[in-house]
Design goal:
This protein is mostly helical. Helix 3 runs antiparallel to helix 6, helix 9 runs antiparallel to helix 12 and helix 10 packs across helix 11. It has one domain. The N terminus and C terminus are likely disordered. It is built from 12 helices and no strands. The protein is globular and about 45 Å long. Helix content is 70%, strand content 0%. The protein starts with a helix and ends in an 18-residue tail after the last helix.
């Protein structure tokens, strides 16, 4: 009984569910993705072309430049530093269970299924016309990975996190109401930023519906599972599309990098 009681909070599903929402696990889970993105961008010389098509990256780099930072590495570093500061500020436990990290990867892959369903259903009513030509597989991979990393940082962690703090602490709105407003606003902004004049896509109701559904879904995953899992799911979906398409430089689904926001 004593052994069982000791193991339950460490390895039980409930403990995994709770622990992997913490910033330390998100930091450890996303560190390889950030390193892969930065290394790939450098080695493939794909950074300029890929990041020119990522509005989320441009937003981060613009703010950092305004305060005196100009290095192309800073947005990735900012993601990791944000999680580290969050962990330290809230005085959370430093003890980790490495077995949770591959489980987060598995969960991220499973959570791509609804995104494929959205792409399939909406694609049947016209989204198949949304095709992006790229300058090669290297740029495609860098762009899709960057989209998963920086869009989730901007639209989920910063935007939804900031809105929840404002609505709940500042305006004393209840949890359900605040979450609904934050998720809805983040999804709408995420969608709007893909279309002209902010993005480069012409207006179409089918595309709008696809982006909005994706935005709502990813926002809900963030609220329920945290930054690590939602970023893993977004990045995994984007990269799976690249390889499903055979690296031929065409993508038919909206969140996979067919616009400046990726």
């Amino acid at each position: 009984m004593a052994v069982t009681a000791a193991l339950r909070p460490r390895y039980g599903l409930g403990r995994y569910w709770e622990a992997t929402q913490e910033p330390l696990y998100s930091l450890l889970f996303l560190l390889p993705l950030v390193a892969t993105y930065e290394f790939s961008a450098m080695m493939l010389r794909a950074r300029d072309a890929a990041e020119a098509d990522l509005v989320a990256y441009q937003m981060l780099h613009g703010v950092l430049s305004w305060v005196g930072g100009s290095s192309v590495w800073l947005p990735g570093i900012l993601l990791l530093v944000t999680l580290l500061v969050w962990h330290v500020w809230t005085r959370r436990d430093w003890h980790i269970h490495l077995v949770y990290l591959p489980l987060m990867l598995l969960e991220s892959l499973i959570l791509t299924v609804p995104l494929f369903v959205i792409g399939f259903v909406v694609g049947r009513i016209g989204l198949a016309a949304l095709v992006a030509e790229t300058s090669g597989l290297g740029n495609e991979i860098v762009q899709k990975l960057g989209a998963g990393l920086f869009e989730e940082l901007v639209f989920r962690l910063y935007l939804i996190g900031g809105l929840l703090l404002l609505l709940r602490k500042g305006l004393a709105i209840g949890k359900f109401g605040a979450t609904t407003l934050a998720v809805g606003f983040a999804a709408l902004l995420f969608t709007a930023c893909h279309f002209e004049p902010i993005g480069n896509l012409p207006w179409a109701w089918e595309r709008f519906a696809a982006f909005l559904l994706d935005g709502v879904y990813l926002s809900l995953v963030f609220v329920g599972r945290g930054l690590g899992v939602v970023t893993g799911s977004h990045a995994a979906y984007n990269l799976l599309l690249v390889f499903v398409n055979g690296g031929n430089g065409t993508v038919v689904h909206p969140i996979s990098g067919t616009s400046p926001l990726g």
